[in-house]
Amino acid sequence: MAYKDPQGPAARASQRRYRQRHPERVAAIQRAYHLKNYVPNGRPPGKVPRPAIDRLMEKVDVVDGCWLYRGGKSSGGYGKISEAGETRLTHRVAYEANVGPIPEGLELDHLCRVTNCVNPDHLEPVTHAENMRRARAS
Ligand SMILES: [Zn+2]
Question: How many C-beta neighbours within 10 Å does residue 133 have?
Answer without folding.
Answer: 13
